[in-house]
Amino acid sequence: MAIEKVRDYFTQWGLAEKILEFETSSATVELAAQALGCAPERIAKTLSFQVDDRCILVVTAGDAKINNAKFKAQFHTKAKMLAAEKVNDLVGHDVGGVCPFAVNDNVAIYLDASLKRFETVFPACGSGNSAIELSIDELEKYSNSTDWIDVCKNWETSTVLAASIPSLAETIA
C-alpha cells in the first residue's frame, strides 16, 4: 500500500508517527477538511499533470484552482491532468491519496504560492484516508520539491482569513 511507502519514507526523519489515519475518507479537499476539523484551504491538494512526456505534481492550497494561462506560461504547454487510470503507474499513489512524498522516480514536484499564506498545511500520505500536518518549510523539505511556482487563481481572497486559522496542534493544546 502507498501509505506504507509514505510511512517508510517519513521514518528516516522520525516523522512517521505524525501521519494521521481516519475512519472516513479524506480523498477530497472537503472530506479531508471534515476529517481534520480544519478549513478546506489548509488542505494541500496534489494535482498530477502530463507535461510533454513526463509527469509533474503541483501541490496547491485547497481553495486554489489552476489558472490555465499561468500554467501555460510556466510549463509552455496546456494544463492536462493525468487520466485517473494512469496516476498510480506514473506517480506511485492512487487518486485520492496522491501526495508529494515517496513518489516514483522522475516525477517533478512543484509547490504553488497559494500555500505560503499558512503556517501549516495537511497533504495526504498515499491513501484516501490519511494526512500529515507540516509547516511550509517541512513541506518544501520533505517533498523534495523542484521549485515554488505561481499557477493558481481564486485563493487570494482567502489570504486575509488564513492568518487567523490555527494549526491543529494549537487547537488541541
UniProtKB/TrEMBL annotation:
Domain YbaK/aminoacyl-tRNA synthetase-associated: from-to ranges: 26-141
One Gene Ontology term of the molecular function aspect: aminoacyl-tRNA deacylase activity
Source taxon at top rank: Bacteria
InterPro entries given in the database record: YbaK/aa-tRNA-synt-asso_dom_sf, YbaK/aa-tRNA-synth-assoc-dom
SUPFAM superfamilies per the UniProt record, alphabetical: YbaK/ProRS associated domain
Gene3D superfamilies referenced in this protein's UniProt entry, alphabetically: YbaK/aminoacyl-tRNA synthetase-associated domain
CDD domains linked to this entry: ProX_deacylase
Name used for this protein in its record: EBSC protein
Taxonomic classification: Bacteria, Bacillati, Bacillota, Clostridia, Eubacteriales
